[in-house]
Amino acid sequence: MERSFIKELQTIVGGEYILTDRESLAVYGYDSTPEIESLPAAVLLPGSTDEIIRIMRLCHGAGVTVTPRGSGTNLSGGSLSAGGVVLQSSRLNRLLEIDEENLTATVEPGVITSALHRAVEARDLFYPPDPGSMNISTMGGNVAENSGGLRGLKYGVTADYVMGLETVLADGDLLRSGGKVVKDVAGYSLNPLLVSSEGTLGIFTGITVKLIPKPRGKITMLAHFPLLQDAALAVSAIIAAKVIPATLEFLDKVTIRCVEEYAHVGLPLDVDAVLLIEVDGHPVVIAEEAAAVAELCRKHRCSFFQTAQNPSEALKLTEARRTALSALARLRPTTILEDATVPRSCIAAMLKVIQECAKKYDLVIGTFGHAGDGNLHPTCLTDERDPDEIKRAHAAFEEIFDAAISMGGTITGEHGVGLAKKKYLPRLVGESGIRVMRGIKQAFDPKGILNPGKIF
Amino acid sequence: MEYVKLINCMRCGMCLPVCPTYKETFLETASPRGRVALLRKLQEGELEQSERLLEFLSLCLDCQACASACPCGVNAGELVAEFTCQRKTEKGLGFMEELILRRLVPHPDRLESSMGPLRLYQRSGVQKLVRTLGLLKMFPRPLERMEGLLPELPARPLRQEIQEVTPAAREERGTVGFFLGCVMSLIFSDASRATIKLLSSLGYKVITPRNQLCCGAPNMLGGDLEGMKQDARANVEIFSGYDVDFIVTDCGGCGAELKRYGHHLEDESASAFSAKVRDISQLLALHRDELRTMLKPLELKVTYHDPCHIAHCQGIRAEPRELLKLVPGLTFTELNEADACCGSAGTYNIQRPEMSDRILKRKLDNVRSSDAEVLITSNPGCLLQLKKGLAEQLPQVRIMHLTELLAQSMEGESV
Fold first, then answer.
1. What is the C-alpha separation between B58 and B299, in angstroms, rounded?
2. Contact call for B41 and A385, based on CB within 8 A
3. Which option is the CATH number for B3-91: 2.30.30.100, 1.10.1060.10, 2.30.36.70, 3.30.430.20?
4. Parallel, antiparallel or unpaired: strands A162-168 and A104-107
5. Do B10 and A32 touch (CB under 8 A)?
6. CA B131 to chain centre
7. How many interface pairs between A and B have CB atoms less than 8 angstroms apart?
């Protein structure tokens, strides 16, 4: 990048907010995606929409690429730039408004997800999307990746809550889409396109999300199943009984062993699966729902069932799920966490495929995740210094993704395509899918300067 | 540095929201994940030991909040400290470091006499004069900072006053070796006196070996691993001369260091020593039922700041809170971000004053919104830093060591 161009960027954001030294660039060369690194030429920390507009105009004119970044917890390489400009949203972190009449919140893109949770819950309101990284992930990143989380089954994902967006387009023009209205059929729906655009269509500068009343109560339950098939049947039976738990999380045998060895939470080593189930809502309703869940788990031969009687017991029951990733990640230096997702009726079949792949490629794969919405996290524990094992891991995941596609599922439920899943996208959406997506990209960003090389 | 410790970081970012310097700057270079990456790239030869890289690394407080948050067991703070130690070993100690870490700190008598002029400075009225006239502005900034941190010193260090054996005040249930931290002895002697009193009241004979040395933590901070090991060997030797059930300290920094003797010295007697070490809150909590009957009411609104060396390095969080809640009449409010560093961090508040002040301000804002009258903590570094901060920004809130408050409740004195 030319000095004169950097100087121009400097005049926009101020000298303090542009990083071009080797050391800084090195640590902006990664996000949470294993094995992928790529160095930007400059990192900018803009302080206003106006600055972003000016940056985009300048970069558009010069044909310099721009990649937005929140806290860098992306799991598909989406926040990495190869020789371009990285725009970090951290200074745009104001919670602009909580509108209790319209039940909306409006935030800048750098607001941390859990900070929004705390702010709205203090007013008895609720913003449900809760990605695993919510304590540090930004709302801008959540919207760009359409983040999910544990509450997806009952409450949906980020896309279900985005009502209005303010977006700076590739050429620096400002686009406003949606707003606070519940019904809006004027023209194409642009929000769903922008949500999950992974930084390739525009830079968000304002986000308005829907809020709902905070559930008044919650009951936490834990069940152990000696047989995997029974756990899967119990999940189907719970949903068929018209109970939609807020949380329906699953741990497989490998994960159970790791959790027990690491945290000694009292899980038996002879069970195939553990389910963590939470129902939330009106106290009278959830009491009925909890009873139904208990009955269905017992009917499907669970060997242990416990309902938490108070918050501290609930915390204890959720411990195994909360420590799952830690327990797995400690075993080996490199942790590859995937998010293949299938219709929930296929969970047992999917788990079988994962176990067979682990065996076939001689890998340790622990699986946990959101059983209720079919979004599993097969987690391969490996060592980046062992190229052969890494090769086998990729081969295993290729089979797992193909299986997910053949079951009517998807290659990524919540991490995005980015760089990591590019190869698999055509298999899922076909040529026509790629053609339509390219057309959309062309309409938004004809010069291709926004987060190039991602998705397709 | 073992390479595997660096590649264990999976860059998930769980450390970012708990890192005090990241929360202030939102810069990846000021985050634990970034520091591990810098160290890794250094070892891989992608980066050199540039001034800038050292500057980025030195912004780490080594508060180890990141280690508590890390799913993979990476301890970025410790890795940076290890790097600093390695560098010092290769480069050798500077003249001042040699003087302070090797010739002053390990010798309690020298350390104590070095405080003499300071005491005189305070008592003669010169301090008041210097402060009023703003004379410190004429000295280098670190000196001005140090002077500002210094509370009124006790007349004599506790080590010189305390009897070597304090008998149990009732039927003896065991013997405790008391590790008296340097700063506790020199500055917060009232708190350590309270600690000994509590132990004695609970039936412990308390042995405070007069020849014990510094725990070695200042050496570690200065990157002087060998100096730390010298202190450690001496202390293990000294305490092994007594038959004690526990080795107790009321200094979080000492406790964290003493518990690591086994790790650093890699010998049996050091491991046995470390296995006996307890933070005072751990030992007191064992006797919570008895304590409950012994404590008298204190009508106070209290909150608790977790010292990093206690919460993150020793994993002790519940005990201090439990003990406070035993005091009748006391209202305990949880402090927001209670286990976030206060910015003291050894000598960080002198070396990185600007960042330290930002972190301190955040802590004080949280104390303000807790609505507490008294802030409790149990580490001398935090006590110094917070005492100064409160005096300047929140004078209505007082600060006490955990054992001071408990001892007063036991005496039935109003605080």
1. 43
2. no
3. 1.10.1060.10
4. unpaired
5. yes
6. 27
7. 83
**Residues in Cβ contact with B20 at an 8 Å cutoff, skipping those fewer than 6 apart:** B61, B63, B65, B340, B341, B343, B359, B362
State how far the Cα of A377 lies from the Cα of A359, in Å rounded to an integer: 17
Domain B288-411 falls under CATH 3.40.50: yes
ipTM of the complex: 0.94
Whether residues B72 and A335 touch (CB distance < 8 A) is answered with yes
Angstrom distance (rounded) from CA A191 to CA A178 = 7
Q: Which two tokens stand for residue B359?
A: 């972190």
Domains of chain A: 3-88 (3.30.43.10), 95-213 (3.30.465.10), 216-322 (3.30.70.2190)
Do B288-411 and B158-284 have the same topology in CATH?
yes
The reported pTM is: 0.92
Determine which helix (DSSP H) or strand (DSSP E) holds A378, and give its type and residue range. Answer: strand A375-382
Spell out which chain A residues touch chain B, with contact meaning CB-CB distance below 8 angstroms.
Answer: 19, 21-24, 26-28, 30-34, 45, 71-73, 88, 90-91, 93, 110, 112, 114, 133, 135-136, 325-326, 329-330, 333-335, 384-385
Give chain A's end-to-end CA distance (angstroms, integer).
25
pLDDT tens for each residue of A253-307: 999 998 888 888 888 888 999 999 999 999 999 999 999 999 999 999 999 999 9
3-state secondary structure of A69: strand
What's B158-284's CATH class? alpha beta
pLDDT in tens, B38-96: 999 999 999 999 999 999 999 999 999 999 999 889 999 999 999 988 888 888 777 77
| Beta-carbon separation of A27 and B52 below 8 A | no
Task: Report the DSSP beta bridge partners of residue A168.
Answer: A174, A203
Question: Which residues of chain A make contact with B50, given a CB cutoff of 8 A?
Answer: 22-23
